[in-house]
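User: I'm curious whether this sequence folds into something compact or stays loose and floppy. Could you predict its structure so I can see for myself?
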Amino acid sequence: MTKLRLRYDYVWESAGITPTYFGSVNGSAALKAVTPDGNDSDTFQVERANQKNAGSAINVENAGGIGFRLNQSGEGTAVDVSSDSENDVVKVKKNSQGIGHCISVENLGQGYSYLAEGQNGLVWAVNNSGLMRFSNLAESQSVGTAGSAEPLPATPATYIKIIGSDGNVYHLPAFKS
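Assistant: Here's the prediction. I'll summarize afterward.
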């Protein structure tokens, strides 16, 4: 019985085996897929048969270096994640007590470093200067009825800059607690 075969239509089929690929010591890839110019289909695709599959569709275990690298050199979106599940879409978990960051973003371009959108568009964003921008849904012209409260100090400890939904920069007074 053939355990691994290449079909007539250039599709690999396997039965009861897990193929293992070893890279050479000169730095070449253990497995490389190259698509021709003009290809508009997926180069690599993992399709799970049904919802009862346990485990991961793709599992990368890495003893050192970078576990997963994606270099987007042309037009298009580098990573597009979507889910029809009611669970977390993306979950990041740091298992060590090291001082490294859980998520580190370095934006050398012009767009926002972080951008969160909901059904009504922008929720909040952070630009390359660290200024946060909020949607108009997070803003109001009043705070309700006046009530009793401790008076604020005469001078704020600092001011926090934000970008309003209108694109203007505002300085919010901040007081030490």
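Summary: The first strand starts at residue 4 and ends at 6. The chain has a mean pLDDT of 80.
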